[in-house]
Amino acid sequence: MHKKRFALIGCGFIGQVHAANLATHPGVELVMLADADSTRASTLAGQMHCRAGEVSAAINSDNVDAVLIASATPSHAELLEAAARAGKAVYCEKPIDLSLQTAMRVAENVLHLNTKITVGFNRRFDSSHQQLKRLLDQGIIGRPELIQMVCRSSELPPLSYLQTSGGQMRDQAIHFFDLLRWLTGDEVTSIAAMGAALAMPAISKFGDVDTSVLIMQMQQGGLAQLDNTRRTGYGYDERICVMGEKGLAESGPQSPPGLKLFQDKTIIKQGVYPDWFSRVQGTYYQHLDAFVRYLNDEEVADLPGLLDGVQAQAIAEAAVLSLSTKRSCPIDKVI
Amino acid sequence: MHKKRFALIGCGFIGQVHAANLATHPGVELVMLADADSTRASTLAGQMHCRAGEVSAAINSDNVDAVLIASATPSHAELLEAAARAGKAVYCEKPIDLSLQTAMRVAENVLHLNTKITVGFNRRFDSSHQQLKRLLDQGIIGRPELIQMVCRSSELPPLSYLQTSGGQMRDQAIHFFDLLRWLTGDEVTSIAAMGAALAMPAISKFGDVDTSVLIMQMQQGGLAQLDNTRRTGYGYDERICVMGEKGLAESGPQSPPGLKLFQDKTIIKQGVYPDWFSRVQGTYYQHLDAFVRYLNDEEVADLPGLLDGVQAQAIAEAAVLSLSTKRSCPIDKVI
Amino acid sequence: MHKKRFALIGCGFIGQVHAANLATHPGVELVMLADADSTRASTLAGQMHCRAGEVSAAINSDNVDAVLIASATPSHAELLEAAARAGKAVYCEKPIDLSLQTAMRVAENVLHLNTKITVGFNRRFDSSHQQLKRLLDQGIIGRPELIQMVCRSSELPPLSYLQTSGGQMRDQAIHFFDLLRWLTGDEVTSIAAMGAALAMPAISKFGDVDTSVLIMQMQQGGLAQLDNTRRTGYGYDERICVMGEKGLAESGPQSPPGLKLFQDKTIIKQGVYPDWFSRVQGTYYQHLDAFVRYLNDEEVADLPGLLDGVQAQAIAEAAVLSLSTKRSCPIDKVI
Amino acid sequence: MHKKRFALIGCGFIGQVHAANLATHPGVELVMLADADSTRASTLAGQMHCRAGEVSAAINSDNVDAVLIASATPSHAELLEAAARAGKAVYCEKPIDLSLQTAMRVAENVLHLNTKITVGFNRRFDSSHQQLKRLLDQGIIGRPELIQMVCRSSELPPLSYLQTSGGQMRDQAIHFFDLLRWLTGDEVTSIAAMGAALAMPAISKFGDVDTSVLIMQMQQGGLAQLDNTRRTGYGYDERICVMGEKGLAESGPQSPPGLKLFQDKTIIKQGVYPDWFSRVQGTYYQHLDAFVRYLNDEEVADLPGLLDGVQAQAIAEAAVLSLSTKRSCPIDKVI
If we measure between CA atoms, which residue out of A72, A73, A51 comes closest to residue A5? Predict the structure, then answer.
């Protein structure tokens, strides 16, 4: 099998995660790194034994089969479109753009080009969410009727991050809008949200929340819930419970190996994941691997496509609207 | 200590539960049973070694200190008011009345009489919910920020029951509106609900749902969630998780003693509660016991009063409104 | 159904437990209490609304169908034999006698009388051990190959108790020798034991241990383990795991309802049983109920008989021998 | 830091595991592979991009700093001694030799050479056993009083493997003899064992067992238990519970991420480890890493040394003796 030649754009925290995976994957050759900050690109390129180049070179080089876009969010849309027009396959970090309108326009421009594109909803590749998807597909618990999702980050991000994140709906909840669509094979038709800035009241100045609860109506009749927090006092907590007619399946708050300590009439289970990254870390590689298999024309059922990116953003947009209007928002109102 | 003399009105399923508890409690003397169906009253009276009488006698007899009202819902309000006016202490099954207006009017008529009254929110006396209340009161996890409640009955009630139940909000969810107020010591200010008739589509004809998801805004800033189902494929499931600033406490899906069976790469925990009654059964006695202590002028912190009954009904009313208007409903809109 | 008339001999701690059960059971009439200390008998009789009498009257009265012997251990053998000779059914607390020889002699004297007798191995009636027995009988995990039993009391008994208890093997481990025989339907053929006085070194003066580990060979080829402690730092711990060819079933360390507390990267399960009595309390009633059904000529599979008492004691005796000889001891060496 | 140059001897199953780790470790250069079967060596060398050579070259080459011996057991002792005499550091798979006498002689010959040696007790590097060791060292549960260990392989190895394995004590239990010494910092003084060939009766012909239970006396007063099976019906099961004066700590039957499925009054936890290798796989790398840190003169507390290898074998030898003599065997009887 011919190795796929990747260029990576963006050498920040998540770019470095992708770089390590690209360097390790047996079906990938990491040929070039680029970053708006060329020093940052050179440093990482040195560690990865590949070369640093201009962003434009990364997109246009004949030596490149695929571009992985992990740069700052405002640059995603333009780079995605340019890379697709240059005939490259694209792995684009989420979101496509903070503006749903822009994301939709890019999708329109790009879809007819028939390039291979995936959007960074890596949590589809969490090993227990994958098991849940298989179990649902096999019909073991019947039609999904009530989906309960929990996404609770343990450590508050810095205010600077939150200021440019697009808000809790577009930045954090969006992963679960995608997971919900993927797991059920169904679409959200309406959403209602309530939120508050409890952990960091300062963010309410720019209209953001750090604690939120959401309910959703699905097209095939089911109902869903999601709650999000930006910090907990106990570690990272991510769960998806799907109740069907015939039972309930839970992809639970996985944890690394830990002891049980019995003391003083209690049993203490040690070892909850400290933060989101320690839980989801492995999914980036799995997502990359699925994308490479797709590039090699294998059938890959779970790969999030460009329209998945748009659709999840539309739900986030409706959630934002519901937060301010205090009424449930039909998704088709924002598309 | 002088035994308190009780009359029981209502000899149906829940009346029989109360009869057994009244007969067993060392501080109670069950002096009389009454029922609209006098044969049913006589039969139960025979088993309980007490006498059967007219409803009016139960309320007015000089031999009676307290009346336990477990008759059909439409009779609650009138009996409650009559018993209070007759100077009896009253334990009234929930709801006070299916109409919030009637419930509020009864409360107004009765409160100034200073009779001792409790409303049937027995789930406050679930032993693990009680532990949760203590833990919250001690401040161990700090201010409640996100409360997640699950109430899933395992077996569909018959259509005949559902037709007169007042609907899922007033009949099932109402217990959790009360638990939420009690646990947090806070008030719900706004609620949004979505629901569907998935298990028994026929009930949608009279506007009811059997599966619902709700989100609530609390006065002190916290947020809450609740989901309800009328049947599951796996047993009875009742959970309350409270996330505070410093941690999370879960009063979980308790189960009776059961085995763990390890087979074929799985661990099977046997013994989930088959239905709601097997889980909450003991709480009726605990509630009665608290009421008796109250009658003996002890301080009893957790006893649900008449206004608790009204308040929980108001939340249920707002939830019903939200289901139809598809917008969040402030509680003060229905009071 | 005619109520069975019981006399209770022994009004100490465990006698009071039995008294309460005898007073509550619908198929029982508690007619008389007796105790070497007649004041103690009178006091309890007052509470139970029955009369106090002489021990000899309890055994010989025509008004008595069955005698429950809960007196001090040294009196068990004589009372058991006398009651049986007087034609009474007998429920005798374990052990029959601290001397295996005496126990065997009593059994020989009594067995041909065909009286109905049960020995106090109440833990057979623990609800999860019962479930385990059913599961084994159904063959769900196949032939038992490796049985692991844990019996760890939480609070050290006083030295005075330990001095007359007969030692850890005859007093504590003996319940599990009986459970092992009952669950497997098999016999122990050989046992090896090691022990130490770690929690209360003083008991080594009279040859006792408070911490012990035992291994056993079963007649049909399986192997078993048992460990015992007289105190833990964490609560009461009782478990039985049976591994068969096709899987493993665990009757685990059951606990009363309790919260889960998530804090600081740990999950704290609250509510382990504080002591042995809070776990096994209910089994005394279940055992009594089975005995009453037996008196009414129902078939009762799990009732421990006189020979079960002898057999478990024989294993305990062999364990004591193994502790001192430091070699495994065949059971037929002590019988 | 200078990379340590390793030669690997033995290219069978476990040799291939080591080869992959040696090729990946950043502090290691895998310079040479050797195997009695030179074709097998060449094939693996091709995959690992290193060269194949003679066993003698692997031991004597100036290009080699350390030798990892993963060849057939009968060759371990000779290769270990030769490599140590040639001045190489050595990582030797367990056991040193099936004969304790030979193992002791090699140790005597080699120890004064002051070469750096580790023996393959990789399970010390299991992440939860490591946590248990830390917790014990911190004194959180006080002095170890009762240690319970379970080692149950899921799939029967082929008869051919069992015939040359040295038996369950020397091949399987030996890891736990080492873990026991390491965790407690204490020595076993006496052991008693019972065993049976239940899963594969054929092995009893050469005196082996596939199911065994063992009890041990520790020098500082504690007691220990171990059970071993060669097959289960439910997956791989490895647990270590240490009870101290102040509590109990359990390094439990870890499992990979899996779903919880609620169905039909049961909760099914999916995803027990299918076999021993999927559980312990990662420990080989951790052990190698600790060894490399040791080669770089870091202090590495947990590394099993040559005498650890001898000591664990001595316990295994005493267990074998106890199986046949049916009496407990002091360890100093076999050394």
Answer: A51
Q: What is the pLDDT of residue D252?
A: 87
d(C-alpha C179, C-alpha C129), whole Å: 9
Q: Is the CB of C152 inside 8 Å of chain D's CB atoms?
A: yes
Instruction: Say whether pLDDT at B285 is over 80.
Output: yes
pLDDT value for B1: 58
Question: If you ran DSSP here, which 8-state letter would residue D158 be given?
Answer: P
E strands in chain B = 4-9, 28-34, 51-52, 66-69, 89-92, 117-119, 144-152, 188-196, 211-218, 223-229, 237-244, 247-251, 260-263, 266-270, 329-330
What is the C-alpha separation between B300 and C321, in angstroms, rounded? 57
At residue B207 the predicted structure's pLDDT band, cuts being 50, 70 and 90, is: very high
Measured in whole angstroms, the distance separating CA A51 from the mean position of its chain's CA atoms is 28
- Quote the CA–CA distance of B211 and B198 in Å, as a whole number: 7
Per-chain mean pLDDT for chain B: 95
- Which single residue is written with the structure tokens 């057991």? D73
Q: Quick check: C270 contacting A, CB < 8 Å?
A: yes
Residue of D nearest to B267 (CA): D269
Written as six digits, the tokens of C302 are 């799990």
Closest approach of D261 to chain C, Cα-based (Å) = 18
Q: Indicate the SS3 state at residue A259.
A: coil
Chain B residues with beta carbon closer than 8 angstroms to that of C247:
261-264
Contact present, D266 and B272 (Cβ < 8 Å): yes
Average of pLDDT values for C149-173?
95
pLDDT above 70: residue D85: yes
H or E element in which residue D117 lies? strand D117-119
Contact yes or no for D69/D63 (Cβ under 8 A): no
Average pLDDT over residues B68-84: 97
Fill in the amino acid letter for B4.
Answer: K
pLDDT recorded at residue D60: 95
Looking at residue C34, what DSSP letter applies? Answer: E
User: Chain A contact for B246, CB < 8 A?
Assistant: yes
Averaged pLDDT, B199-222:
97
Domains defined for chain D, CATH in brackets: 4-115 (3.40.50.720), 124-278+310-330 (3.30.360.10)
Torsions phi, psi for A244 (to 5 deg) = -115, -175
CA separation for the pair A171, A165 (Å, rounded): 6
Q: Mean pLDDT for chain A?
A: 95
> B272 and A259 in contact (C-beta within 8 Å)?
no
Choice among A193-207, A308-322, B242-256, D133-147 with the minimum mean pLDDT: B242-256
Residues A306 and A308: their CA atoms lie apart, in Å, by: 5
Each residue of C62-94: pLDDT tens digit? 999 999 999 999 999 999 999 999 999 999 999
- Please give the C-alpha separations between residue B326 and each of A268, B215, B333, in angstroms, as whole numbers: 43, 13, 15
Preceding omega of A95 cis (within 30 degrees of 0): yes
pLDDT of residue B2: 84
Q: What is the pLDDT of residue D1?
A: 58
Helix-helix angle C276-295:C13-24, to 10 degrees:
50
Region A134-153: mean pLDDT is: 97
- Chain D environment of C152 (Cβ under 8 Å): 243
Extract the tokens encoding C68. Answer: 């429950």
Q: Looking at chain C, which residue has its C-alpha nearest residue D199?
A: C245
Three-class secondary structure of residue A89 per DSSP: strand
Mutate to test the interface with B, among C260, C265, C281 (most CBs of B within 10 A): C260
Q: How far is the CA of C253 from the CAs of B87, C267, C269, in angstroms?
A: 50, 18, 13
Q: What is the ipTM of this complex?
A: 0.94
How far apart are alpha carbons A9 and B32 in whole angstroms? Answer: 82
Angle at B328 between CA B322 and CA B332, to 5 degrees: 90
Q: Which two tokens stand for residue C223?
A: 């192997």
CA atoms within 13 A on the CB side of C331: 18
Q: Give the whole-angstrom CA distance, residue C224 versus residue C245.
A: 15
Which residue of chain B is at minimal alpha-carbon distance from C141?
Answer: B263
